[in-house]
């Protein structure tokens, strides 16, 4: 397995990470036994980075990971945890809380659910604009000093927030959506992260399945998960985006690869400081994603891919209007 470094003088992690969210939430029912088998296969393949959140399935995801790691050496994996999003008993989202006391409270429950003494990287899932980022990062830094956390991360933070956070404590990574269909970070956020020595963990590298090569209008019409409410998956937007996928499929065919593999490989090729997260819920999807590590994209290949999937041709925002308004990374400076 290839490895990549988290920021300046950070830990080495696998070049691909496994995002566990879909095993507990958002994409409809998942098979627990298959989820655990997929985690086992990922570790066997050399994936060390396992990404979860305390609110995925209201704690289910962390307990699933604990079960999957039974009998394994804790130091062989790098566990990243997001916190701050609050859920009601019916699963609804009821706000974000990143006050210092909340940071420590969330962390205490996470340590219990995971059955571990420390978290490798801890990060707020969203920026809480009612709490100065300096206070949130300062609280995590206290937990780091106490030995409960090894690294501090941020998720969906804008350039200004990155600078303010870095002034409090070194930030190891920024987790943010980045794919052929979501390239907004290239203008300001990615250059700022590179200036500050902050790595990028890219989620949504397959744009929630659009770039998987397996999505269709028929599947979208019967979707029973949160994608049914996302602009890119509906109406004329979907037609436009699926046409981009077909253009990419032609290139993938020439490379002897799948659409998903080329999409992941493109993200990998954007820099050694970028670590794609793949959200495979099944072993066959994981095996497909791992195949991206074997693909070599030349400068000419990259140019063809970006011509086939131009940023200006993507139809629809990556989230609905309400969620977009919550993202610090989408705030106009």
UniProtKB/TrEMBL annotation:
Q: Which UniProt keywords apply?
A: Oxidoreductase
Task: Report which superkingdom the organism of origin falls in.
Answer: Bacteria
Question: Which Gene Ontology molecular-function terms are recorded?
Answer: oxidoreductase activity
Instruction: Tell me the SUPFAM superfamilies matching this sequence.
Output: NAD(P)-linked oxidoreductase
Iron found in the keyword field: no
Q: Which InterPro entries match?
A: Aldo-Keto_reductase, NAD(P)_OxRdtase_dom_sf, NADP_OxRdtase_dom
All copies of domain NADP-dependent oxidoreductase, residue ranges: 16-308
GO terms under cellular component: cytoplasm
Q: What Gene3D superfamilies does the entry give?
A: NADP-dependent oxidoreductase domain (3.20.20.100)
Which Pfam families does the record associate with it?
Aldo_ket_red
Coiled coil segments of this chain: none
Query: What protein am I looking at?
Result: Aldo/keto reductase
Classification of source organism: Bacteria, Bacillati, Cyanobacteriota, Cyanophyceae, Chroococcidiopsidales
